[in-house]
Amino acid sequence: MTALDAVAASLAGRAVPDQPLGARTTYRVGGHAALLVEAHGEDDLVAVHRALVAAGDPVPLLVVGQGSNLLVADTGFPGLVVVLGGEFDFVDVHDTTVRAGGSASLPKVARKSAAAGLRGLEWGVGVPGSVGGALRMNAGGHGSDIAAVLDQCRLFDLSAGEAAVWGPDRLGLGYRRSDVGPGDAVVWAEFALTVGDRDAAMEAVTEVVRWRREHQPGGSNAGSVFTNPAGDSAGRLVDEAGLKGLRMGSAQVSPKHANFIQADSGGSADDVHRLIDYVRSVVADRTGVVLEPEVRLVGFAGDALPLVHAGPEPQTPPARAEVSTSSRGRDLSGSPTPDDPMPAVEPRLWQRRMAVLRDQSRRRLRWIIAALCAVVAATAVLVTLHSPVLAVRNVTVDGVHRTDPAAVVAAARVGGSPLVDIDTGASAARVEQLPWVAHATVVRSWPDGVTITVTERVPVAVVDRPGGGVAVVDGSGHVLELAATAPPGLLTLGAVAVPGGPGSVLGPAAGPALAVADALPATLAPGVRRLAVTAGHRVWLDLGGGVSAALGGGAHMGAKLQSLASVLASAHPTGPAVIDVTVPDLPTVGPPAAGAPPWRGAA
Ligand SMILES: Cc1cc2nc3c(=O)[nH]c(=O)nc-3n(C[C@H](O)[C@H](O)[C@H](O)COP(=O)(O)OP(=O)(O)OC[C@H]3O[C@@H](n4cnc5c(N)ncnc54)[C@H](O)[C@@H]3O)c2cc1C
């Protein structure tokens, strides 16, 4: 019986084997937990402790909250998962103190505190985890973190089977870290907040939600993938390495925020893991900075399992495989071995046991011989596959109009390599570094061919360059090429800086202008002379003859432009006039106000 079998037997009726774990995380990818127990009160935690004692050896153990900082391997987690609920899900507000259970949702605690007029935890509305997970990670944002507001907490030590109340000074809280170990379960945490104005607190909560919506992507992710290196931003380093939007299989570096990696629905945790590794290596090669994952990687080969041990110390520290999946090297239920003396056993029974053991040994030997034959055959196949006999000779490039096919082949780096050695994901990712390429797929065709299919970016606007000429950009602000003059039919974006050559990306200030360029209907485009963005990201169009259009911020741009088209279709005003479609349902036409539009008096 393995240590985990002993845990399962001890928790019979409470723990369930082979339960989906990836589905409990915000990534929504990854495999199952070998064993899962839902703890509804401290009695259940005591039962888990007893099961760990019964195991004798250390057991891989993971306490899971909302799963918003976890990436579970597709092969799952080969140990016991503890999920808190029931009595651990509560929020109590008393004067300026808020006590919340380990499984309570942090956004809920933040909202309830703000609704009681308490200040200090409003940022928590943007962290979609549990109180326990937030404490373990010392979660934070918007200039604060758990350490700043925590007064005390109750931790249940699953190894020792007892709980204690701890102050923040003994928890080793640092930037996205704490000394809360894999064998600790946060029972509750108490936050010391300050009295403030209820409306101001609720407004701060709303502002945090608005900011998150505007700056962070939706979809399946676990927030920031990497912690920020001292004095720098992980997102900036990934962005500057040109990896924003990079895709590997079902995982993609978010085009909206470079420190977020998203997984496609029904995707693979291994794709996310591969992409994390790839981004780390590119940033390290480029800058020498080795980014550290903030997201917890669970069950991946090469990552240490969180082992928890209760009861007397084991004789020898067990290796990972011994603990997680196998009983190899251990005496199963006290059975004799051929060399063991068995003085107290009746002789016929002893002979019978020895016969069974000999039979087992013979079967094991047959298995070993069969396995060796399989290894030899597999090695022969592998040697053939990796030999130059099956090297790539034909590369086909589809879908290119603006990109040189030779550049695509060079970027893919597939020619001459054995077909089996080609990493199609990495190859496609390299092709996607070319300025015009939005998306690429690389597909092998046996015995010696590779097809690279490219989807190119669509130019929507140009930006004047300080020294003359223009940069042609697409709707997401990628600089596609530099040209002496603007190609016909493209809108010129005013007051926008060009960051660099092809492949660079316009800064966030260009967002509203790009939204216009991207959504501009064909009927309006010929009448627009220029576009400018003024303070507060407010967008203006010069329609000529002293007539301007005020579009406001970048949101709802499609509706605003439709509204503008309707006004112009019904009656084209004469200048000086401003058509204000900031609220698209209520367009107004009037004289220009003082200070706006930006080109008043010109054109
Ligand atoms: C869209 C999005 C935005 C995010 N933004 C932020 C942000 O701004 N700032 C930030 O810090 N994080 C952020 N995160 C990450 C994540 O929400 C936090 O790390 C959160 O605190 C994790 O809590 P959880 O309950 O989901 O923990 P899980 O992901 O379930 O687990 C994380 C760790 O905590 C441990 N743990 C969980 N519950 C307990 C418990 N009761 N007792 C002991 N240990 C426990 C787990 O064993 C694991 O080691 C974001 C995530 C997403 C998806």
TL;DR?
With 603 residues, this protein is α+β, with helices and mostly antiparallel strands. It is 28% helix and 24% strand.
Question: Tell me, what is the CATH class of one domain?
Answer: Alpha Beta
Kindly name the structural category.
alpha+beta
The distinct bound ligands, ions and cofactors come out as: flavin-adenine dinucleotide
CATH topology of one domain: Uridine Diphospho-n-acetylenolpyruvylglucosamine Reductase, domain 3
**CATH architecture of one domain, please?**
2-Layer Sandwich
Low confidence ranges = 315-350
Overall body shape: flat
Fraction of residues in helix = 25-40%
Question: Sheet bearing the most strands, described?
Answer: 5 strands, mixed
Report the average pLDDT across residues.
Answer: 87
Distance between the termini: 85 Å
DSSP strand (E) fraction?
15-25%
Q: Tell me the total number of β-strands.
A: 31
Kindly report the oligomeric state of this protein.
single chain
Number of helices: 14
Give your account of this protein's structure.
With 603 residues, the chain is of the alpha+beta class. Among the domains are: 87-215, Uridine Diphospho-n-acetylenolpyruvylglucosamine Reductase, domain 3 (2-Layer Sandwich), CATH 3.30.465.10; 234-298, Uridine Diphospho-n-acetylenolpyruvylglucosamine Reductase, domain 1 (Alpha-Beta Complex), CATH 3.90.78; 390-456, Roll (Ubiquitin-like (UB roll)); 520-603, no CATH class. 28% of the residues lie in helices and 24% in strands. It has 14 helices and 31 strands. The strands form nine sheets. It has a five-stranded mixed sheet. Strands 6-7-13-11-12 form a five-stranded antiparallel sheet. A hairpin with a 2-residue loop joins β6 (91-94) and β7 (97-101). α1 (3-10) runs antiparallel to α2 (42-55) and α11 (405-412) crosses α12 (424-431). It starts with a helix and ends in a 13-residue tail after the last strand. It binds flavin-adenine dinucleotide.
